[in-house]
Amino acid sequence: MLDRLREDIACILERDPAARSSWEVLTCYPGLHALILHRRASWCRRHGLHWLARLISHTGRFLTGIELHPGATIGHRVFIDHGMGVVVGETAEIGDGCTIYQGVTLGGTALVKGAKRHPTLGKDVIVGANSQVLGGFTVGDGARIGSGAVVVKPVPPGATAVGNPARVIQADTEAAREAAAAKMGFSAYGVTQGDDPVSQAMKGLIDNASAHEHQVMLLWQAIEKLSARTRELPAGDCVPQDAQTTEVFDAERMNRLVK
Q1: Backbone angles phi, psi at 107, to 5 degrees
Q2: pLDDT score, position 244
Q3: Which of 24, 140, 145, 217 has its CA 20 to 30 A from that of 172?
Q4: Domain coordinates of the chain in residue numbers?
Q5: Which fold has domain 2-169?
């Protein structure tokens, strides 16, 4: 028990720059208090003391403003920062190393008793303030839930979910788009990464242009090979002089469009 407490205090000192000492964390952090009481309530529930488990949970809610159902499964090194208004449902599971901010709800959308109604958070998930994660799905390891997001479907590992309803942003997809744009001489970040319609249109144009250039290049390469085999001519002799056989992009034209 003491080892678990030391682990909790250490993770808070590591993640919260406002924490100055272990004594301060132990006495003044409601997230830590809520977790300590939850472990007592969870023990009671596992041993058939359901009423006492709910009473301890209710007491923790009264003292900390954090409602953790005794049936919820919470891993090691979980940090509930500030925590006021956090609600974690009965069948929710929170993996090791997760960080949860104030106003978060890990809620359910079904009314069937015994069913998996609440979400499962993988390891090292960050759930932003006032976000709602609703349903019996999984949020993958290392995922991030943006503040104010309403998540109603699974989130892949390492991805970010933002908005209402939440849309999933794949980090590798954004990186690939920027790499393609940089290759063309045009910066996707030069517009904006927000929800502006022009930004969304530009992202689509970049993805589309990149795909088209690549397909055209592949088609010409296939024509060169086919012509050389059927006519026994050098590969370059069977292709028009103005044929596009490499990936190119008119960056200046694209820049003029967005000025």
Answers
A1: -110, 175
A2: 54
A3: 217
A4: 2-169, 173-257
A5: UDP N-Acetylglucosamine Acyltransferase; domain 1 (2.160.10)
- Tracing tokens 């272990």 back to the chain, one arrives at 22
Residues 54-90: b if buried by 16+ CB within 10 A, e if exposed = bebbeebbeebebbbbbbbebeebbbbbbbeebbbbb
Largest CA distance in the chain: 87
Catalogue the E-assigned strands of the chain.
67-68, 73-74, 79-80, 87-88, 93-94, 99-100, 105-107, 120-121, 126-127, 132-134, 138-139, 144-145, 150-151, 160-162, 167-169
Q: What tens digit of pLDDT does each residue of 224-251 get?
A: 777 766 655 555 555 555 555 555 556 5
Nearest Cα to 71, choosing from 99, 97, 39? 39
The token duo for 246 is 């490499």
Per-residue pLDDT tens digits for 91-128:
999 999 999 999 999 998 877 777 889 999 999 999 99
Average pLDDT on 34-62 reads 94
Question: Helix, strand or coil for residue 105?
Answer: strand
Confidence at residue 216, expressed as pLDDT on a 0 to 100 scale:
81
Residue 4 has pLDDT above 50, yes or no: yes
| Structure-token pair, residue 47 | 């041993």
Cβ neighbours of residue 136 under 8 Å, at least 6 residues apart? 91, 108, 109, 110, 115, 116, 117, 118, 119, 120
